[in-house]
Each structure stands twice: as structure tokens, then as C-alpha cells.
Design goal:
Strands 3, 4, 5, 6, 7, 8 and 9 form a seven-stranded mixed β-sheet that branches. Strands 1-2 form a two-stranded antiparallel ribbon. The two termini are 33 Å apart. By secondary structure, the chain is of the alpha+beta class. The protein has two domains: 259 residues, Butyryl-CoA Dehydrogenase, subunit A, domain 2; 252 residues, Butyryl-CoA Dehydrogenase, subunit A, domain 3 (Up-down Bundle). 51% of the residues lie in helices and 13% in strands. Strand 1 and strand 2 form a beta hairpin. This is Putative acyl-CoA dehydrogenase. InterPro entries: Acyl-CoA_dehydrogenase-like (IPR052904), Acyl-CoA_DH_CS (IPR006089), Acyl-CoA_Oxase/DH_mid-dom (IPR006091), AcylCo_DH-like_C (IPR036250), AcylCo_DH/oxidase_C (IPR009075), AcylCoA_DH/oxidase_NM_dom_sf (IPR009100), AidB_N (IPR041504). One of its GO terms (molecular function) is acyl-CoA dehydrogenase activity. Keywords: FAD, Flavoprotein, Oxidoreductase. Belongs to the acyl-CoA dehydrogenase family.
């Protein structure tokens, strides 16, 4: 006997173009990559399909499996993936997210790549780690031109092939970084891994790494000590003659989120490597890589916010309570609009930083000075905002959002990661303090950017308060988070006034700068243009 029919439930958000995002598309045109809009839109359409969304689910529900030995007992240190992982990787590589700006370095190429990374991260975040690391490895590798000449074309080739083979026999390569040790964490100068020079110019590397992600990569950028200090090395998992290098995967980490991405503890047992840059200058080399992955952390967080609020708005258009759709109820509209304001501010900052990165790469010194400070500020703040944003977006679903099938728990588990990796909050805050102390011109560049918003009273007042704080930082480290938060907010406000939707800009300034809000999402004041804000995030076709 049929006891009930299913009604008043939402439907999966399939067929939605993930790139249907005015902040993203307007940013592409403004930051010099209008030529990529069609490609980004095509990728967004693909990302929204049922098949691709299913790849994301399967890659997470079937995490990688470490295979340290083959069935005969030979050490192989291999990793087995669900086919969905390879589908995601193939698409990311084919679309140049791992290296197109290096093989086609025209103006706007890094902006286009950032937009694609934003769109594709919406599907699944774990596989974007090797994509990000491969992209970021090239500037570090260029510290040794003869290595770059061999490997850069392979690191930027748009062909993906999983498995282990000689790096010179594969059509394309992936890279990762290997820095963190048990005793040091972010303090990489405390590393004990040791590298010894051999007569042929190679080095033998011995030591452990406590946390290395994307351990299926072909090439590892490893930090190790020499007599001159911390040095960077290129360590292939398979040598040119096809023999396995002595890179031992001890165990995979059981992580809160990012479960499709194989992070491992590694032992280097006399592994063969080649020096990148000068001995003792490993930190400056690897920082070139870290800064680029920090930008990707910010991009990934902005993408996660957009996914969360879009999914929540979609649910609210289909679900009724107390006689009307959730999206038509004032309190839910306040929550969704507040989440949208946060998301758009993050996305707008992401696109501005991507543009600065693009122009800095092409030699623009002014943009380089701005980026030096603004990236650390933005990475700190946007990544900090994502966990609370993900939690509120999940709550919009009620109990349905707490169920794994909704995919909101996966998004929530992912949300703390970007604030922890590539420099946790305190590391990012200290980096801001160092930048301001070593390069005061970065402060001028930062406030010069903010000033482009013109005579907006709330921004001018906040800037005045900030400048007063910066001239009297007796307790600089104690107050660093407060100051950096305010810096992020005035920068986002400036960008919204210049380039954002007026309703979003007004709501952001009233709540984030003027303080007319509560301590949680959904506390926007009366008078906000909720309809204009929600129109920017609600999927079409209600």
C-alpha cells in the first residue's frame, strides 16, 4: 500500500552553468582576459552537468588507496584511484589549469586560468591540489634554467596520464611540494632532511616529510639541508631510465576533508635529486611556489562560497514552509543575501588579485608591490570566512543539508582546509607584518588601490583608523589579526564600490565597515535591496 507521495522537496542542481556568475565574467573582461569568456563559460556548463557532479561525488566517496607493494612483494609505492579522479584530472589538464599561462604567456593568461580554476573547483576540490602545485612549480623550477628547459614543457603540456613511468616518456607531468616535517610544521628552517652532493652533480636525499599532498605526482620539489642551509631539490618518483627513485610513501593521511587528494608521510631513502637554485637559498625558491598556491587557496575558498550560496538559494526556491517558498520569506532572504554579499566580495577580490598576479608576472612593478601585501591579506581573510559561510549555507537546507547525499557536508569539511594550508592564519598575519616592515612601499600600493574608490565616507573613515593603527603598532603581533581583517574589509569595500553591484556594495559597507549587523549571517539591516542581491546568485529557471 502506498502511504505517501513525495512532494515539497528540492531537486538536484544539474544543468546549471557554474560560470553564470556576473562577478566572474565581468572580472575576466576587466582584468584583461575577455578573450577567455567563451572557454570559461563552456567549462562552467560542463561543470554543472550531472555526469561531472557525479565524478566529484565518486572521487570523494572512493578515496585513494596506497599500494606500497605489488603482489610479489616488490616495493612500488603506488596509489590507486577511482576512475572519477582521472576524469577530473584529465579535464583540468586539458583546460590548461595546470600550466597554460606558461605555454601561452599572453596578457590575461593567469586571469583566465584563475577563472577556470574557480569554476572547476566548484565540482571537487581535492584534485585541484596537484593542478595548483604543478602550475606553481614552474617559477621555482626556473631558478635552474637547465632543469626548466627539460621539465617545463612537460609540466605545461595539456595531456594527462596517470601512473608511474619515466618522466621523459610521459606526455605530461604533475608536480608537488614536499616541505613539512614532524618537528617543524611551518618552520621549515627546522627541517632535518639532509642532501649530500654526489660526484655527478646530483644529490642523495635522506629524511622524512610529515605531510606532502598530491603524492601521485611525477616530480617533488623537496626542501633539505646542505652545509649552506635549506636548499630546494627536484626529486622525480621515477628516474629517466625507468627505475623507481627511493621515495617511500609510508601512509596516507586520514583527513577531515579533501579526501580525494592523497596526502602522505614520506621517507626519502637516499633518493636522487637535483638542486634548484643556489645552496642555502631553498626558502626563496619554494616561496615562489607557495605564493602561487596561496592565491589558489583564496580562489578555492571563493569558489566554495559561491557553490554554497548557490546551492542554498536553489534549495530555497523549491522548498516551502509555512505556506510559501523559503526564498520568499524575509528571514531566509536576509540569510541568503548576506551569504551572497560575502561571496561576491571574495570573488571580486580574487579576480583583482589574479589580475595583479598576471601583470606582475609580465613585469609590472606597481602591481607586484600591491600583490605582495594584498595577497597575504586576502588569503588570510577569505579563507577565514569560508567555514562559517559553509556552515550557514548548509543550515539553509535544514536537516536535509546535514545528510551526505546533499553534498553540503563535503563542502563543510573542505572549508577549513584553505585557511590551514600554505600558511595558517597566524603565518599569513606574520607575513603581512614582515611585508610592511621590509617594504613600506607595499603599504603605499595597498592604500593607493583602496583610494581608487573615491570619496566614499565609510571607506575614508576606516582607512583613517587603519593608518592610525599602523603608525602605532607597539603590540604588532598581538593586534595583527585585527588590523589585517580591517585591511581586507576596506580593500573589498573599495573594489565593490568600483566594480560591484551597487546593492551588494551598499550592504557590504553598511555591515562590514559601519558595523550595522549582528555576529552571524542573516543580520543585514532593513532597507537592503534583497531582490537585486538574490538575483545575482539564484540559479535561473525557478
Amino acid at each position: 500500500m502506498q502511504t505517501h507521495e513525495v512532494f515539497n522537496q528540492s531537486v538536484p542542481l544539474y544543468g546549471h552553468n557554474v560560470a553564470d556568475d556576473a562577478t566572474l565574467l565581468e572580472g575576466l573582461a576587466r582584468e584583461g582576459a575577455e578573450w577567455a569568456i567563451d572557454d570559461v563559460s563552456s567549462l562552467g556548463a560542463l561543470a554543472g552537468t550531472e555526469q561531472v557532479q557525479e565524478w566529484g561525488r565518486l572521487a570523494n566517496e572512493n578515496p585513494p588507496i596506497l599500494k606500497p607493494y605489488d603482489r610479489f612483494g616488490h616495493r612500488i609505492d603506488d596509489i590507486e584511484f577511482h576512475p572519477a579522479w582521472h576524469e577530473l584530472m584529465s579535464t583540468a589538464v586539458a583546460n590548461g589549469m595546470h600550466g597554460a599561462p606558461w605555454s601561452d604567456p599572453r596578457a590575461g593568461s593567469h586571469v583566465a586560468r584563475a577563472a577556470k580554476f574557480y569554476v572547476w573547483s566548484n565540482v571537487e576540490a581535492g584534485h585541484t591540489c596537484p593542478i595548483s602545485a604543478t602550475y606553481a612549480s614552474v617559477p621555482a623550477l626556473r631558478d635552474t634554467p637547465e632543469l626548466a628547459a627539460v621539465y617545463e614543457p612537460l609540466l605545461s603540456n595539456a595531456l594527462y596520464e596517470g601512473g608511474l613511468r619515466s618522466p621523459l616518456e610521459k606526455p605530461g607531468l604533475l608536480a608537488t611540494m614536499s616541505m613539512t616535517e614532524k618537528q617543524g610544521g611551518s618552520d621549515i628552517r627546522a627541517n632535518t632532511t639532509r642532501a649530500t652532493l654526489q660526484s655527478d652533480g646530483s644529490y642523495r636525499i635522506v629524511g622524512h616529510k610529515w605531510f606532502t599532498s598530491a603524492t601521485m605526482a611525477d616530480l617533488f620539489l623537496v626542501l633539505a639541508q646542505t652545509d649552506a642551509g635549506v636548499t630546494c631539490f627536484l626529486v622525480p618518483r621515477v628516474l629517466e631510465d625507468g627505475t623507481r627513485n627511493n621515495v617511500r610513501l609510508m601512509r596516507l593521511k586520514d583527513k577531515l576533508g579533501n579526501r580525494s587528494n592523497p596526502s602522505a608521510e614520506i621517507e626519502y631513502e637516499n633518493a636522487i635529486g637535483w638542486r634548484i637554485g643556489e645552496e642555502g637559498r631553498g626558502v626563496p625558491s619554494i616561496i615562489k611556489m607557495v605564493n602561487m598556491t596561496r592565491l589558489d587557496c583564496l580562489i578555492g575558498a571563493a569558489s566554495g562560497m559561491r557553490r554554497g550560496v548557490t546551492q542554498a538559494a536553489h534549495h530555497a526556491t523549491h522548498r516551502k514552509a509555512f505556506g510559501s517558498h523559503l526564498i520568499d520569506q524575509p528571514l531566509m532572504r536576509n540569510v541568503l543575501a548576506d551569504l551572497t554579499v560575502e561571496s561576491e566580495a571574495a570573488s571580486l577580490l580574487m579576480m583583482r588579485l589574479a589580475g595583479a598576479h598576471d601583470r606582475a608576472t609580465l613585469g609590472d612593478e606597481a602591481e607586484s608591490r600591491f600583490l605582495r601585501l594584498a595577497l597575504a591579506v586576502g588569503k588570510y581573510w577569505v579563507c577565514k570566512r569560508w567555514p562559517a559561510h559553509a556552515a550557514e549555507a548548509m543550515e539553509c537546507f535544514g536537516g536535509n543539508g546535514f545528510i551526505e547525499e546533499s553534498q553540503m557536508p563535503r563542502l563543510f569539511r573542505e572549508s577549513p582546509l584553505n585557511g590551514i594550508w600554505e600558511g595558517s592564519g597566524n603565518v599569513a598575519a606574520l607575513d603581512v607584518l614582515r611585508a610592511m616592515a621590509k617594504s613600506p612601499d607595499t603599504v603605499d600600493a595597498f592604500f593607493g588601490e583602496v583610494a581608487l574608490a573615491g570619496p566614499e565616507p565609510s571607506i575614508q573613515r576606516a582607512v583613517g583608523e587603519l593608518r592610525a593603527q599602523l603608525t602605532n603598532l607597539a603590540d604588532a603581533e598581538v593586534l595583527a589579526r585585527r588590523v589585517i581583517e580591517r585591511m581586507a574589509l576596506v580593500l573589498q569595500a573599495s573594489l565593490l564600490v568600483r566594480f560591484g553591484n551597487p546593492a551588494v556594495a551598499d550592504a557590504f559597507i553598511a555591515t562590514r565597515l559601519d558595523g550595522d549587523r549582528g555576529s552571524v549571517y542573516g543580520t543585514l539591516p532593513g532597507g537592503v535591496d534583497f531582490a537585486a542581491i538574490l538575483d545575482r546568485v539564484t540559479p535561473q529557471g525557478r
